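Chapter review: from sequence to fold.
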Amino acid sequence: MSEFEPDWLYLREPADAAARATGLLDPLQDHLPAGEEVVIRDLGCGTGSLGRWLAARLAGTQRWILHDHDTELLSRAQGSLPGSALDGSPVTAVAEQRDITALRAEDLAGTSLVTASALLDLLTRAEITALATSIAEAGCVALLMLSVTGRVELSPADPIDPAIAAAFNAHQRRVTEDGRRLLGPNAVDVAAAEFRRLGATVRRAETAWRLGPDQAELQRQWLEGWVGAAVEQLPHLRPVADVYLRRRLEQAAAGELHAVIHHADLLVLPPSLEAAA
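The token string follows.
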């Protein structure tokens, strides 16, 4: 299943919400402007799950600008954000269909906070460098959540786990049809280093999906996508992978499988804001 299909995005939303680093919210709030409208740009917003999670956890009047290439997802996101913030202040949202990799500092003028979820690992090194430069030059705070880091723990363990994980991670770092080499699990480290090079302060939180027997459907769809990507990357794995997938799906259906899929969240504070704190 494509990670951009609405049904998949809705299915994963509770696991995303449980994994997000709430410990970053207090320092984030401390670095947002008080007593004025907070303008938040959500890059690659999908169905709006990050906005639904974050808007009600931040105080103050908020104006969300939702960016995605998919007009259907934009429509779903715009109509689903909460109408009020943590302190009851109004929350509004507008949608803008655009290429987020083309955003520059001037496009971010007036923006208080740039957010994204499950985005960094889909970018190239050049795209992350450009994004970090735009955010730093615009003086925005950034909250970049749920980027995969390449580590998966399954219980009970299986001897085929490492081969599938390695092939999946290679797929995440693949060269796409249009010649883009994705960073995949390396993206968080690259982004953090780039922001620090630009003088920003970066706070990192390790996050993870923790999928138990009560999330059998999410386990099933995640397993199918995980193994499918591994086989796409290394087709010679298919005979072994097909048997492996059947075994894992049987365990999920029987309530015997536990999965921990590791991610990381980054809170980025521009030099001027950190110095004033």
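Two observations follow directly from the output. The first strand starts at residue 38 and ends at 43. The first helix runs from residue 6 to 19.
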